[in-house]
Records
---
Amino acid sequence: MSERILHNPQDIKRMLTRIAHEILEKVPNLEQLVLVGIKRRGEFLAHRLQDLILKFEGVKVPLEGLDITPYRDDIDRKHQEAKQEKVFTLDLNHKTVIIVDDVLYTGRTIRSAMDAIMDAGRPDAIRLAVMVDRGHRELPIRADFVGKNIPTSHKEIINLHLEEVDGEDKITII
Ligand SMILES: O=P(O)(O)OC[C@H]1O[C@H](OP(=O)(O)OP(=O)(O)O)[C@H](O)[C@@H]1O
Ligand SMILES: O=c1cc[nH]c(=O)[nH]1
């Protein structure tokens, strides 16, 4: 199967810039804001949003990377026991937590992330920012901030490549 490029580095930069502005519009009190990036690429995207917010507002908002593995719904109990370990060092109580991820598909990753966040505290609100929403949700989850809606078939795969991980920025479909 061949891989086709849908978006280039410039597109990705524009999407992130727009999302950063939208976040600032929706959450004007930056003391309230916490970014949680889903490892791995979501964490790098969250760092880019953090840099943009710093550039626009002069405030470095707190950020934490989250590995959702112990919270997945398709792993056995032995792995689930890892849940007992503290996953967040930041205080999430009374914050507006923005989960950041690359692709939103079934919604199961985000369900796991919300479980991890709720285990760690009681935020005032949890919001979701994704670069690509490709549809096919299996849970009642939607994104508040979306880079691009890309309608797909079940058979297709969307990949967000990032310079930090993959050497270049691009969004592809296979
Ligand atoms: O909405 P969902 O159906 O949960 O799919 C979205 C998730 O799938 C991908 O992660 P994946 O588990 O493929 O791991 P990867 O990021 O290491 O590729 C992607 O990074 C999202 O986190
Ligand atoms: O197409 C998909 C589905 C889930 N996660 C991805 O990164 N791409």
---
Amino acid sequence: MADETPLLRAQSVSLRFGGVRALTDVSFAVAQGEIFSIIGPNGAGKTSMVNCVSGRYRPTEGRILFEGRDITALRPNRRAGLGIGRTFQNLALFAHMSVLDNIMVGRHHLLRAGFLRGMAYWIGGAQREELEHRRAVEEIIDFLEIQHVRKAPAGTLSYGLRKRVELARAVALRPKLILLDEPMAGMNLEEKEDMARFITDLNEEWGMTVLMIEHDMGVVMDISHRVMVLDFGRKLVEGTPEVVMADEHVKRAYLGEVEAA
Ligand SMILES: Nc1ncnc2c1ncn2[C@@H]1O[C@H](COP(=O)(O)OP(=O)(O)OP(=O)(O)O)[C@@H](O)[C@H]1O
């Protein structure tokens, strides 16, 4: 039945870089409305998996389905157009531009992705579109509580705020699925708590489905509906945070590493 089709499905995905097996036969599905996290030790294949979903990498074998449609061969911008949004691990904000303009750029980029849509933009309704953009951007600025810095150049913000602006830029495109690569990396406790709250609110209030890589186990177990553990490119286990925490393989392969760190 249509409403049982997961939003995202990875089917037997393998990825090799020369002799390196980054992923081996990994399958999982993310349902509409879930927060799904991928965890695992360094080099386990987490980023490779998310890159296969965003389209940055093409799996050597296997398929990626989005809303039941095979997107394995689609380029990243086509996937973005279908509703797969992402933030980037290295902050790629325009330092001299205001927060507001940084977020606006994201939306214009989407709009002008197609030539015909670009023409439509210029020929008719440009002002109306501009107003719609502004409204959408202001809404997300309010939602992520960055009103106080909306005019500030992005380069002058604290690290935590820049990460929030980056999230705002991705969310302003209203993706159906958002890919978050270590959204808490480098943050202090307060910033992490804020970010966790925003992700939960985006999920609960805006219905945004989230696929996240995150090393902070507290946050992962706190806000995820389900978690998949990768180890040496293979899926070790997948389930609710309780199931994953209780798994013996996970304790040995991953949690043990955290305790030792
Ligand atoms: N572009 C690439 N070229 C060659 N090897 C790569 C490439 N990207 C990833 N790999 C290799 O694939 C394996 C999985 O890497 P990946 O970055 O996906 O792991 P990860 O779980 O995200 O690690 P981390 O937690 O350190 O970010 C590693 O052995 C890595 O060296």
